Amino acid sequence: xxxRSPRRLLGVLASAMVAFTVLSSASTAGAAQTAATPxxxxxxxxxxxxxxxxxxxxxxxxxxxxxSNWATAMSVFQLNGWSSSKLFAYEYNSYGNNISNAQGLAxxxxxxxxxxxxxxxxxxxxxMGGLVSQYYLKVLGGNTSVSHLASIAGAxxxxxxxxxxxxxTTCQQMYPGSSFIxxxxxxxxxxxxTRYASWYSACDxxxxxxxxxxxxxxxxxxxxxxxxxxxxxxxxxxxxxARFVAS
Length: 247
Hints:
- The chain is of the alpha/beta class.
- It has helices at residues 6-48, 71-79, 98-116, 129-139, 169-174, 179-185, 235-246, and strands at 57-60, 87-90, 121-126, 146-152, 195-201, 219-223.
- The chain has a six-stranded parallel sheet with strand order 2-1-3-4-5-6, with helices on both faces.
């Protein structure tokens, strides 16, 4: 039998060791990849989940406002997946009575529910629209028809700025300490299963004090510096609100 040289034997052994190392590395990498797959797949699935944009949204303007105030907000909601057929703007008499305005909102919401077939709507309000919305949800029992309420610079606890227009009932109701505000702030400010959130800022300039917007029991978001009217064009805040409503 032919004897192999020591050098050749060493070469064979070295080749075997290289092959073993390569196979072991491949096996280890494969095992690591397999172990990581479930977590990665779960993360990918979570990231891919679409927002829930089937809930109709009713926008409620502020004092002297109108439906046009919500042009930017509606565009932001559409960019986040809402159909224009699910976005509605409620208009009311800024110089009348907020009790009547809240009753009108109740009828408007019922009409939206009938048109869309939805059991609940979301409400996004601004400024005095906060008073109209809160009266509807709390005093008129509208919380059973509202899944989310987002209050943007809402005059939820009143504003001393309303002292400039006290000839109107709505402004009398919007002044801090009014009987109207007492009705919507006494006891539970966030009744029912509705999810509540507010956005407010020290730079508001109209809601005085600016903390008036905050609701006990809500998720209250302090925006570093935004003006009262500037909120209506703030696509960052409006995007946050769209995601809140979709949650």
